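Section 5.1 Outputs to date
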Amino acid sequence: MEKVNILMACKLMPYYRIGIFHELSVADSDFKFHFFGDTKKEGGIKQIPNEYSSVSHPKYIRWIKTNNYFYKPERLLWQTGIIREIFKSKFKVFVFEGAIAHYPIWLYAFLCKLRGKKVLYWTHGNRGIDKGIKKFLRVIFFKHLGDGLLLYGNYQRNNMISDGYNPDRLFVIYNALQPEKQFGILKSLNIEKVNIEKESIFKNPDYFTLIFIGRLVKHKAVADIIEVVKNLNKTETPTNCIFIGVGEELENLQGSVNTFNLTDNVHFAGELYEEESIAQYFAMADMMISPGNVGLNCIHAMGYGVPVITHDNMNYQNPEVESIIEGETGTFYEYNNFNDLVKKLKLWIKDNNDLDKNKKACHQVIKNTYNPDNQSKCIISSINKTLNG
């Protein structure tokens, strides 16, 4: 039987999606996935190199390169080739990013409906904070110009069901990186060398060690991490911290480290993308801290067996927060309560001494749910239900 062709229109081809893009490209299913996307770098996000489109590449992605034209960042986007494909008969299902501010997607979806094509949106959906005209536009966009939503988490799905969306058109697909690669690197790590490296970084390498990975920007509340380290080092729970990433806040963070005399406790590793380099730092860490919110950095940490601490306001969280199981794969502190953040960290340091137990719990969550194989199966199931529903 001939496979059904699926077009997945990607504004960009972010490096962190190699796992799921490859999994769908080689999936043994009734569908043939084609990825349309550009390689332009935006917002400091590394893009997948074009050589991944070669069938000989070990992580092959069935990728047709397009060109994007940004008239206003995060607002207007024109992606070449999409309208042409809508008017061809090859593709039966089009998957778009569910960003209502990318105005041409409204046109793409409208034309798909005229042509009898199925439309799915890959989106965060309703986080619980939409109001007024924005909420109204989402309803029109998702309900009337789409046949279903591919959502990252159950919290958003429940919000949308409460808003009157048809639950049979809301599909949770979760999120994933490349856990098998992470597991393999972890297994091959030379812990003795890691410890020697940690001794060269920190004056007191045996201190409890926090880690943050991601862009160093204000909305991630990274400045709070320095405050946490400063506070903890005045108590019986002295702490080290590693930052992986760059961003607008880097200079301010470095200034705070110097001001508070924390140069022996804080290390800036810079911008790293290769897992071999990232892994050694996570092997030094006891917990990942993300005060602003968590996203794929949460899944990244758990892939290395490192639990996560973040705030408890789900309206201001990303869906990956659902991977945190209190006391097992991490812990929560009260939103906008810095004192509670410090308190919860002290409790964790005091009560969670079984690192192997936490590591196994983190890995189990990744193996069960947050991996490309499961995400691929969820997407394929969603398309099946959309076509046959």
